Amino acid sequence: MKKNRIIGILGLGLFGSALARRLASHGIEVIACDIVPDHVNEIDEELTIGAIGNFTDLDFMRETGFGNCDIIVIGTGANLEASILGVLNAQELGVHRIYCKAKDQRSAKALKAIGAYQVILPETETGYHLGDLLARQSVEDIVNLDDQTAIVEFYAPEQWWNKEMNHLKLRQKFDLNIIGLRQKPGEILNTKFPANYTFKAGDIIVAVANIQIFDQVDYLERI
């Protein structure tokens, strides 16, 4: 039987509480803490365990059950010293997949140096993400999978209308692999479409794209 993942969240500000709610909505067990009682009480019903206390205190973390977590996320980046202690405490409890929020590159570098699995710079990453979207007017959304690959969601360009998908040779020409279609925003993704599907105005396409090619050639406008 597959074991349910348990994720710990240290700090329940806007970032931490949003993360906790989303994880809980996916049925993931969440253990979380904050030193502010209201932060814990506000989402306590959605948590597996919600505790009021300081995650820089190793005994508190142990007693709360953070040692049972598969992943720990440090959701507050304002105090670098506290974040470092959070990482060290998580490691002491045997948890080594630790994600940390950081306020700047200096903090991110320090957290990586002591063993954080991944460091998140929310404002920087949000800025990059919005910049990518605004630079490509045809694109509705873009999610980077790694340094070379992204999932993009965009409306079918006018140049594609009334043309069959296989005739456009998108994979061969531009390394663009279409994985689904929608007729309107928010609709369930249709992944069962024929190779000769004919694009029409309003089609929303979800595809895996090569970022390097995406940046070099705006194929959405030139096909």
TrEMBL record:
Biological processes per GO annotation: potassium ion transport
Signal sequence residues: none
Gene Ontology molecular function terms on file: monoatomic cation transmembrane transporter activity
Residue ranges of every copy of the RCK N-terminal domain listed in the record: 3-121
Boundaries of every RCK C-terminal domain copy: 137-223
Residues spanning the membrane: none
InterPro entries: NAD(P)-bd_dom_sf (IPR036291), RCK_C (IPR006037), RCK_C_sf (IPR036721), RCK_N (IPR003148), Trk_Ktr_HKT_K-transport (IPR050721)
Organism whose genome encodes this protein: Facklamia hominis CCUG 36813
Name listed for the protein in its UniProt record: RCK N-terminal domain-containing protein
Short name of one Pfam family: TrkA_N
